[in-house]
Fold this sequence. Notes:
This protein has 166 residues and is of the alpha/beta class.
Amino acid sequence: MKNIVLIGMPGSGKTTIGKILADKLKRNFCDADHLLEEWEGKSIKELFAVSEETFREAESRTIKKLSAASDLVIATGGGVVKRAKNMELLRTTGIIIFIDRSPELICADVDVASRPLLAAGSQHIFELYKERYALYQKYKDFAVCNNGEPETVVCEILNIIKKVEK
């Protein structure tokens, strides 16, 4: 079975939706950011303290490992789309689903201080969305909107998967 790969902005709900989806599909759930920290032995914050490039290299190593597996639900980091090679690897073994959540909704309920790229404040969320939206659109196979109801989003994704598997 192909992996289900969730892409989208930090705070879009990829981890929450991914866990529910994996449970319903009886698959393993992988949070790429958590695995990156485990496999690298450093936090994302520590990697970013060196440079964004250092973090992106670690992220690419993580994506390479995850792409070698199958039958997973993978929640990626929000910036995974910044490197085409990451997306090519993910596409080889996965269906890529863009979790689209507006910057307004992200700002309303995400603790930005806990996320390195969002710590600069809510305006930065709008800037990131503008910067990355075209990349999310470019790399997605399907998109679903998250208006704050994870179970609804999971149902939409399950319907997509049923159609794809036919």
